[in-house]
Amino acid sequence: QSALTQPRSVSGSPGQSVTISCTGTDSDVGGYDYVSWYRQNPGKAPKLLIYDVYERPSGVPHRFSGSKSGNTASLTISGLQAEDEADYYCHSYAGEYTSVFGTGTTVTVL
Amino acid sequence: EVHLVESGGGSFQPGGSLRLSCVASGFNFGIYWMHWVRQAPGKGLMWLSRIEGEGPTTAYADSVKGRFTASRDNSKNTLYLQINSLRVEDTAVYYCARHGATIDYWGQGTLVTVSS
Prior knowledge:
The structure holds two protein chains of two kinds. By secondary structure, chain A is mainly beta.
């Protein structure tokens, strides 16, 4: 169960869009449509943003969107806001009831 | 409202054991799968374990299999994580989390520090 690969950091100006990639294998990201995304602010627990690749829980703004192609999932934040500065993690089901998280990406709003 | 509260963290010596608890409220605890996830200081999230609502089915990350044991007492709405043969690298914030459609609700975490 190796961690999914995410870029260490991405940045953008307010109003721009940023995309975070999450690369796994056929045994996790590529094998199941069970990819989730979380935002974590310093000292806080993660918060669910996206599940099942592109589904948004109630209360999560539409500017957060998810997608997947092959072994790579992506989270796009449109209309970047200062409050979006945080760490973001992807997560995937990896078979036999196991899970794996991504390495994490720090989003900086310039 | 879903509420998860972990406890049992603190300072421990290498080689020792500990048991973390997670008390759940605001939902029908007994029918949900639950997870344990940890985060070492300044590091990313690491999935540790998942346990079925009725308890018999569990799964573990390969790196903790044999040392970590998840269990639950549905009559007490409580999830547990037993950690044996503690190592310095077990130092982390340990979170319990509920599995709805995915890992959807998290506790605030409890800090475990392992040092001599």
